[in-house]
Amino acid sequence: MAGKDYRGLLKQGLANGRKKGLSGFIWMMKIVVPISLFTAVLDWSGLLHHLDFLLRPLMGLLSLPPTAALPLIIGMLGSVYGGIAAMAVLPFSTPQMTLMSVYILMCHALIQEGIIQGSSGIHPLKATLVRIGGAVITVLLIAPWVGSATVMPTPAGGALSLQPAFLDMIRHWAWTTAMLTLKIFVIIMILLTLLELLKAFEWIHPFVRALSPFLRLMGLDQKVGFLWMTAVVFGLSYGGAIIVEEAKSGHLTSDELEILHLSIGMNHSMVEDPPLFLQLGINPFWVYVPRLLMAIVTVRLIRLWYRYGRRHQPAS
Known about the structure:
The protein has helices spanning 6-45, 47-50, 52-61, 69-77, 80-88, 94-106, 110-118, 124-146, 166-200, 204-210, 212-218, 225-238, 240-248, 254-266, 273-278, 284-307.
């Protein structure tokens, strides 16, 4: 460490953080703004309410109103940011947004991230089905504690409001989206600057070594620690290139890669994504703990299968 230019590293980290923060924010707004507008117009049009009879049974199983299907589908096919944008412009209660947040955090960008996982050690269909199953089970387990309801909240005053004029709806959407945009900008700039400082000062690898006891709790080997840390900090999309290259190196067995992917599939981007949901008024416990526990349970179960289940499989 002797002889390092700490002032230079600090300036480099801050500059890189500012550059990547702005780039990431602009990229995110290309998703958030059109999706939030689309959601607001769709809700204003009343089309969603005509589909209630199709969506009510499935959403009811998850203790959510039929309208919740839109943010969930946008999140599953698009991204966390799209799911947040759809949630923010619809009048959900905090418990309803809590369940949706947990689901979207575990089960988002399935096509894009499934391709990345399929390129680095696990069949994309298996990775996707485990994530969907894990998200559904987690929501079912926490729903009684969260207190969600299958109907949309009644507006203040106890009476249902009349449909607003289109321009009134647009003004409400613009104000809601502007506030969401400001909060996202602050969060992204702080987090990406912090990550660039960690990289500039080469603190990520020592941090992984310090996490060895936690990795054992997660059911993971220390040799996958850097890849796990990459996914937890940068996400599957941002850290995909690192994960793919390391998987190609041959340092990990197919079982080790599969276990890693099943864990990070449900429990990645823990630094950037959860704070985006917290600004909606959601308790931090729900956006961090349930999916972490589900990742631990999933890894433990797959290890039991490797140890005992394979013994009863017929020889090929």
